[in-house]
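User: Sequence for Helix-turn-helix domain-containing protein below. Tokens please.
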Amino acid sequence: MTSPDPVAAAVSALIAAIREQVLAEMAAAAPPKPSPAPDQAEGPLLLTLTEARQQLRVSKATLDRLLRQGRIARVRIGSRAFVAATEIERFIAEASAD
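Assistant: Structure tokens for Helix-turn-helix domain-containing protein:
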């Protein structure tokens, strides 16, 4: 039986150390991917009034009335109006409880 070649063993150890270092640096350089909260559904946080109407499957007049009555809250950003997705979910849950 022959003894292992010390040069080959040193080269193998050096390659393994370089591989570990490169993998560690790659893992540190990659930004972590944000994971969505388990209770948060996929999709936008704010819906346009048209999108809110489509989700609720109501007419423009009905959505306007619900907004005027304060049964659905409106979010204003500049001159634009939105409805929070959570507000739609709350309204549906409240309406289902009735």
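Residues 46-97 form one domain.
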